[in-house]
């Protein structure tokens, strides 16, 4: 924030209010989601049951994003965001009422999480377009750094706050904090933020609008290639997320508490990276920055963890693996906002969500399946081979180490191959 001057504060007034209050609301929502995961695990004792909550959130992205983007471009952005926020908080209130009545069941959470995910599917592209409308183009990179910073801070403090509130005051207090954070964001958006209207022509149907988003991507190979590249990155990253617990927890030097520390290092790295984004100069080639940062991140993180046995090295692996992610996100964000016409951004961002995020549940499944059914059995049989023993260790967790090595190779290949394709595209800024 110290890098933002007084005149910039005036120019970015609406953004700063929207960013600050929405970040508070996102923190509240994240706390509730984490606390509900704790409650669900206490009730079922099943990791699959808790993972299903995430699947319920991502499913709407895969199934409905294209159409939600068309709706975003069709209607007023501010009203869309307010409506989605109200619907989401109503889902939270229903959870609260059912819990207070001691009638809250597992399937309730699945259904309500799916509806909340659906609202987020509509709200997210509307928010992205709103940011474009209220942020002067010269501040795209700097504001992206601030947004990455807030998300990073949320990822660090969310589990700490959620665990503390849930343990000390129960789910009631968690929900109360969430509703309070929603109220702050809702009032700020309703009364203090003006978002210019930028809508499609009347008479255009949702299907036609969705088609236009797809057509735009087909006609812009640079944007399409970047989106598909990020889908590959998400596939590897989500598989890593599924692999990490099976690697850290069984390790003699690991455990659940160590897993929490290692995971938080990613958030710390994101904070540092976000601060770097705010002060770094504009790069000469944003496209090259995108695939080179991901090559470094996917390669270094997976290989460091695969070949190490010390928690300190695991933390270092997370730090170096995530510190460049905000830089990648900022450069990708600038390309998208500068290339996609604002009247098309809602439906194009929604198409991007479908193409970019559908690999996340696939990666989560593949990561868990490969560790449990391929890598761990393989290491149980062949761990006596000296080279395998030296590289990946022995016992439970050695298969997860092998899986991380595989992910490091796959991630590096994705970046190298895509990087060669991206070299033929030119992106220039005025």
Q: How would you describe what is shown here?
A:
- The chain has two domains: 1-190, Growth Hormone, Chain: A; 206-424, Growth Hormone, Chain: A, CATH 1.20.1250.20.
- It is globular and about 65 Å long.
- It is built from 16 helices and no strands.
- It has 430 residues and is an all-alpha fold.
- The mean pLDDT is 82.
- Helix 9 (256-279) packs across helix 12 (325-339).
Largest sheet report: none
Enumerate the spans where pLDDT stays under 50 for 5 or more consecutive residues: none
Assembly state of the chains shown: single chain
On the 0 to 100 scale, the average pLDDT is: 82
- CATH class identity of the largest domain: Mainly Alpha
Bin the helical content: over 70%
List keywords for this structure.
Growth Hormone, Chain: A; mainly alpha; 2 domains; 430 residues
Q: How would you summarize this macromolecular structure in one to three sentences?
A:
The protein is built from 16 helices and no strands. With 430 residues, the chain is mainly alpha-helical. Helix 10 runs antiparallel to helix 16.
């Amino acid at each position: 924030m110290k890098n933002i001057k007084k005149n910039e504060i005036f120019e970015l007034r609406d953004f700063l209010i929207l960013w600050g209050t929405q970040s508070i609301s996102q923190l509240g929502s994240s706390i509730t989601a984490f606390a509900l995961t704790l409650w669900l695990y206490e009730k079922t004792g099943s990791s699959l049951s808790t993972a299903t909550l995430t699947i319920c959130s991502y499913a709407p992205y895969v199934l409905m994003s294209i159409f939600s983007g068309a709706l975003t471009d069709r209607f007023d952005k501010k009203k869309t965001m307010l409506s989605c926020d109200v619907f989401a908080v109503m889902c939270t209130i229903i959870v609260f009422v059912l819990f207070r009545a001691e009638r809250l069941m597992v399937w309730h959470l699945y259904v309500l999480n799916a509806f909340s995910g659906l609202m987020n599917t509509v709200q997210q592209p509307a928010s992205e377009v709103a940011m474009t409308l209220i942020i002067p183009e010269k501040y795209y990179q700097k504001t992206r750094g601030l947004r990455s910073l807030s998300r990073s801070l949320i990822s660090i403090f969310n589990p700490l706050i959620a665990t503390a509130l849930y343990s000390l005051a129960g789910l009631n207090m968690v929900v109360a904090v969430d509703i309070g954070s929603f109220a702050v964001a809702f009032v700020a958006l309703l009364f203090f933020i003006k978002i210019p209207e930028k809508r499609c022509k009347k008479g255009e149907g949702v299907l036609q609008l969705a088609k236009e988003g797809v057509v735009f991507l087909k006609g812009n190979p640079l944007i399409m290639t970047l989106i598909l590249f990020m889908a590959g990155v998400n596939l590897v990253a989500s598989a890593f997320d599924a692999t990490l617990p099976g690697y850290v927890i069984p390790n003699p030097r690991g455990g659940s508490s160590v897993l929490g520390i290692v995971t938080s290092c990613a958030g710390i790295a994101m904070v540092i990276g976000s601060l770097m984004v705010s002060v770094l100069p504009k790069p000469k080639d944003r496209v090259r920055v995108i695939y080179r940062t991901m090559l470094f991140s996917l390669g270094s993180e997976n290989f460091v963890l695969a070949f190490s046995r010390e928690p300190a090295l695991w933390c270092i692996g997370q730090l170096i693996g995530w510190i460049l992610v905000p830089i990648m996100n900022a450069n990708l964000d600038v390309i998208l906002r500068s290339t996609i016409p604002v009247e098309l951004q809602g439906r194009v961002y929604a198409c991007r969500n479908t193409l970019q995020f559908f690999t996340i549940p696939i990666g989560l499944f593949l990561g868990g399946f490969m560790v449990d059914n391929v890598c761990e059995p393989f290491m149980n049989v062949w761990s006596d081979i000296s080279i395998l023993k030296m590289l990946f260790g022995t016992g439970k967790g050695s298969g997860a180490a092998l899986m991380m090595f595989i992910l490091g190779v796959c991630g590096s290949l994705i970046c190298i191959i895509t990087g060669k394709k991206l070299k033929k595209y030119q992106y220039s800024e005025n």
